[in-house]
Specification:
Layout (H helix, E strand, L loop, with lengths): L9 E6 L4 E5 L11 H4 L3 E5 L2 H11 L8 E9 L4 E11 L4 E9 L4 H56 L16 H14 L11 H9 L3 E2 L2 H7 L24 E2 L12 H15 L2 E4 H8 L15 E4 L5
Parallel strand pairs: 9-10
Antiparallel strand pairs: 1-2, 1-4, 2-3, 4-5, 5-6, 7-8
Helix pairs in contact: 2-3, 3-5, 3-7, 3-8
Length: about 325
């Protein structure tokens, strides 16, 4: 048995119990409610932010919602019918307490119901645009954080390379020792540098854990700096033997490299997502003129700091 498309379907649905709004993907297309496998693809649902919910309640006015007679759910259909679920406060004189009862509100005219439907639809488009803005902000923050820590990782790797490359000449066969055991010290120092593992940000649960590991890492000072610190291997008195070269317990022989510099590092996948989100954010959203007029009355810039009211463009179907 085949199902047939239902001609009557909701254009907008508002659920204030769960703070969601739903509209069809294509308001002009017939919807087959018998096909459960594709039904979810026919509608788009968004969660309303607390700030936008407050603005919505303000916009619909006391005819639809008050503190003692609350609108819980509303659906407006393509044929002009509507369903409004309300909750009215009652007083029980016996128990001297208040309680609520649910009921179907049916006192609105077709025009009043349509006006509410437009407001709800406007809320959907506003929330959708705000969601894109929020995603851009989150990705930019994530990218900035990602770049920072990844750049520190690459900086450390380059540092190791620079330390080794700049001292290659120290161990060449034709370089003679200026003091006994000098080349052996350089060979030992270079081996130590190679053996120091640079913390990989991908192996840490949080950026903070990676930062702690990165900034706690130290390198041994090279033989030349050791000789400057301990001339002839002696302390300042010139008599007492200094700690051995690269002594793990001698804090003066270990140093942290400057991590203030950064390098360009971009995660291609994250960048592409950010570009797409920015394109969506910067593109104009086409909406019907009547819907455009309603959206403009919301003054969304007062709710979302980065929201641009000019992001919407009114659209009039050809022939009208």
């Amino acid at each position: 048995m085949t199902s047939t498309p239902v001609n009557r379907y909701p254009i907008v649905q508002l659920d204030l119990l769960n703070d969601t709004v739903v509209i069809p993907v294509d308001p002009t297309a017939s919807i087959d409610f018998g096909d459960e496998n594709t039904l979810a693809d026919k509608f788009r649902q968004l969660e309303i932010s607390p700030e936008l919910r407050t603005k919505l309640i303000e916009k619909i006015g006391e005819f639809w919602h008050t503190d003692v007679d609350k609108l819980e759910a509303f659906a407006y259909y393509n044929d002009g019918h509507y369903i409004a679920q309300r909750k009215r406060q009652k007083y029980d004189f016996k128990t001297e307490s208040t309680y609520y009862i649910d009921y179907q509100f049916q006192s609105a005219t077709n025009e009043q119901a349509r006006e509410l439907a437009l407001i709800v639809e406007a809320v959907f488009h506003i929330q959708q645009k705000a969601k894109v803005i929020n995603s851009v902000e989150k990705m930019e923050k994530r990218l900035k954080e990602h770049n920072f820590f990844e750049s520190k990782y690459l900086k450390r790797i380059r540092e190791k390379g620079i330390l080794l490359k700049s001292t290659d000449w120290r161990v060449l066969p034709d370089i003679e020792d200026s003091y006994e055991g000098e080349k052996d010290q350089w060979i030992a120092w270079r081996k130590k540098i190679r053996g120091i593992a640079v913390p990989d940000p991908g192996t840490y649960t949080t950026p903070l854990d990676f930062a702690k590991a990165l900034y706690s890492q130290t390198y041994p000072i090279d033989p030349k700096l050791y000789r400057q610190k301990y001339p002839d291997g002696k302390l300042e008195d010139g008599v007492t033997d200094a700690p051995a070269f690269m002594d793990e317990n001698d804090a003066d022989q270990w140093t942290k490299y400057d991590d203030d510099a950064s390098s360009d590092f971009f995660n291609d996948r994250l960048i592409s997502h950010l570009i797409m989100a920015k394109q969506r954010n910067n593109s104009k959203s086409l909406v019907r003129k009547e819907l455009y007029d309603v959206i403009q009355t919301f003054a969304i810039e007062d709710i979302y700091d980065d929201f641009d009211g000019s992001a919407f463009t009114e659209w009039t179907p050809s022939g009208e």
